[in-house]
Specification:
This protein is an alpha+beta fold. It has one domain (about 25-150): 3-Layer(aba) Sandwich (Chemotaxis protein chec). It contains five helices and eight strands, in the order ββαββααββαββα. The chain has helices spanning about 30-40, 60-70, 80-90, 105-115, 135-150; strands at about 15-20, 25-30, 45-50, 55-60, 95, 100-105, 120-125, 130. The strands form two sheets. Strands 1-7-8-4-3-5 form a six-stranded antiparallel sheet. Helix 2 runs antiparallel to helix 3 (about 80-90).
């Protein structure tokens, strides 16, 4: 079989993985997640608190580029722009992988999310989250019930059908 260059959209973050966090705060990032993060050649991950969920958001370089472009469209010094700059840039930390594919989770983020000796990685397509496993399980049923009541519109508009 010939190796063909990948054409099309970037790979996505999928599934859930529970990984141990050692006493130094190191955790192995799932191999599939590392592949997505390295797809753009950056080899970095951005982590930021997600106050709405009580989890840590994991973001790619291309996701952050998209956020930067959206923020740049706002007036310099506007309250909206400043709030978004704070939320996405002042609150983010850029991390690189060690040779074993691990990152060191900053203590302020693990404290925020209540993460102890296990971190649950949850794929969300273009981003992922890192959760305390018990907190995620407690929220999972509510999220699933809400998702059952939703439908996706077809590309190009309209709300015919559901996914």
């Amino acid at each position: 079989m010939l190796d063909r260059p990948r054409v099309g959209p970037m790979r996505r973050f999928t599934s859930r993985y529970a990984n141990r966090v050692d006493k130094k705060g190191r955790v192995s990032v799932p191999a599939g997640y590392r592949a997505v993060l390295e797809d753009g050649g950056a080899g970095v991950v951005y982590l930021k608190p997600n106050p709405a969920d009580g989890a840590i958001d994991g973001l790619t370089e291309s996701f952050m580029d998209d956020i930067q472009q959206r923020i740049d469209a706002l007036d310099i010094g506007s309250d909206d722009r400043t709030a978004l700059e704070d939320a996405y840039f002042a609150e983010s930390v850029e991390l690189r992988f060690d040779p074993e594919g691990r990152i060191i989770l900053p203590k302020d983020l693990t404290d925020f999310a209540g993460i102890g000796d296990t971190a649950l990685f949850v794929g969300l397509g273009t981003r992922f989250q890192i959760w305390n496993p018990e907190t995620y399980e407690a929220r999972k049923a509510d999220r699933a019930a809400h998702a059952r009541s939703l439908t996706l519109s077809k590309p190009g508009g309209g709300s015919r059908g559901s996914a």
